[in-house]
Structure formats: structure tokens, C-alpha cells
Specification:
alpha+beta, OB fold (Dihydrolipoamide Acetyltransferase, E2P), Trna Endonuclease, Chain: A, domain 1, six-stranded antiparallel sheet, six-stranded mixed sheet, globular, disordered C terminus
Length: about 240
């Protein structure tokens, strides 16, 4: 759930990566924090309907945060800090079947050379599971979500470090959280970042598990949805009219 009720607005422009000027429905123009370092391809066009979250936190420079974008009636979550909260809640509640046996969930644990894994899952008699979470917002074909939306050397590095974890005998799990209400399948955007796609192929061959999870998105909040099919080369047939 969002901490405060969202307000509808119209996007004027997104700039400097982390700023977005919007016009609230009452006509007021404000600047919102955009917690998304990616390109937001297809989600930053002026005139799009958006939802912002107001706050009265004196520690924050901006009184609004950009949370949702409406694209053709589909809601897309653009706050990249939110997926870790959604997945973390799911892990602690045992709601992610592939990882439901784990009883100890530790966030932000150092691993590899320069990274912190999003979650280290542990349980009696179980191999440790290193879980990395990625936010997926891009879609250029009906029903098909894609990752990444821009080149991500950091993402490729994470795949390499997960591959090393798997080689050492632990479980390494990459969770793609699809923050789109219109997505029924996920693929890799190989044309945007072929190096990431290559790193993904090598990581999977090394034993890294790929898990794609959908979400339920409303102006009240974003919650964990059902697992979605993953097709790294987008050859998987799927029905975009599925409920």
C-alpha cells in the first residue's frame, strides 16, 4: 500500500533522471521526485496520465513522488525502490513458491566483489539462496514486458556475481518483478543491451534461477501477483487477452 493516497496528474516533462514536472488535476504544477534511474522508455512522454504521492516529510526536498504512469489504460509502477519491498514482503510471508521454505530473510547482504545482494534467504537444512531483484517496466509489444530499458553494466555485473554464487554451491535467484498491469510474459531487450542478454545466458547456464513475478497494481498500492512465463528470445506464444 502507498503511505498516502495518490493524486492524479498529467506529466509535463521528466528530466535530470530523477525529476518530473506534473500538473495536478486542480491545475497546480509541481515537481515530483522520480525514483527511477532508467530511461523509462515509453513512460516519459509529455501528456501521459500519472499518479503522484504527496508527503509532508521535512527531510525530503520534494513534496511529491512519481509512482504510477497510465499507458493506454494500463498502470505501470515506476518507483524502482518499491520492488524490493514487494518481494521482501512476499519472501517473509512465504508467498513466493520457489522460495517459500526459507524462514530467515536478510536484506542487503554483501557478496561478490562490489555488491550487496537484495536478499539472503536461509533455512534449516536448505542451501542459502541469494536473491537479486530487478524492476521491469518496459513493453514495446502488447502483453510482453522487457528488461532492461537501457544499458545496464551494473545488471550484467550482478549476473556474473550470481553465477559465481551458483558455482560455489548456493542457490542464486534473479527475480524480475514486472510492474505492469498489461504484461503476461517477459523477455530480454537484446537490442537495447546485448551484453546483458549474453550475461543472462551465461548465468543461466551456470545455474542461476530466473523467476518472473507479476504484480497487482491500483492507485492504492502494488502487491505481488502470479509468476509469469520467461522467454529470453521472445519466441514464446502467449495470449495477450488472458485475464
Amino acid at each position: 500500500m502507498f503511505q498516502t493516497p495518490l493524486l492524479r496528474a498529467t506529466l509535463i516533462r521528466r528530466y535530470k533522471r530523477f525529476l518530473a514536472d506534473v500538473r495536478l488535476d486542480d491545475g497546480t504544477e509541481v515537481t515530483a521526485h522520480c525514483a527511477n534511474p532508467g530511461s523509462m522508455l515509453g513512460l516519459a512522454e509529455p501528456g501521459l496520465r500519472v499518479w503522484v504521492e504527496p508527503n509532508n516529510d521535512p527531510r525530503k526536498k520534494l513534496r511529491y513522488g512519481l509512482r504510477l504512469v497510465d499507458v493506454g489504460g494500463a498502470l505501470v509502477g515506476v518507483d524502482t525502490s518499491l520492488p524490493n519491498r514487494v518481494v521482501g514482503d512476499g519472501l517473509r510471508a512465504g508467498a513466493i513458491d520457489a522460495l517459500s521454505a526459507y524462514t530467515r530473510i536478510r536484506p542487503e547482504v554483501r557478496y561478490g566483489e562490489k555488491s550487496r545482494v537484495d536478499f539472503l534467504c536461509q533455512g534449516d537444512g536448505l542451501r542459502d539462496a541469494y536473491v537479486e531483484v530487478k524492476s521491469v517496466t518496459l513493453s514495446r509489444s502488447p502483453g510482453l514486458a522487457e528488461f532492461p530499458d537501457s544499458r545496464t553494466d551494473r545488471g550484467a555485473r550482478h549476473l556474473g556475481e550470481l553465477a559465481k554464487v551458483a558455482g560455489d554451491g548456493a542457490r542464486a535467484v534473479l527475480v524480475y518483478l514486472v510492474q505492469r498491469s498489461d504484461a503476461f510474459c517477459m523477455t530480454l531487450a537484446t537490442d537495447i543491451d546485448p551484453a546483458y542478454a549474453d550475461a543472462s545466458t551465461k548465468a543461466k547456464a551456470a545455474g542461476v534461477e530466473i523467476l518472473v513475478l507479476g504484480t497487482k497494481i491500483t492507485p492504492q498500492g502494488i502487491t505481488l501477483g502470479q509468476p509469469l512465463p520467461f522467454d529470453p528470445i521472445a519466441t514464446l506464444a502467449f495470449d495477450a487477452n488472458l485475464p
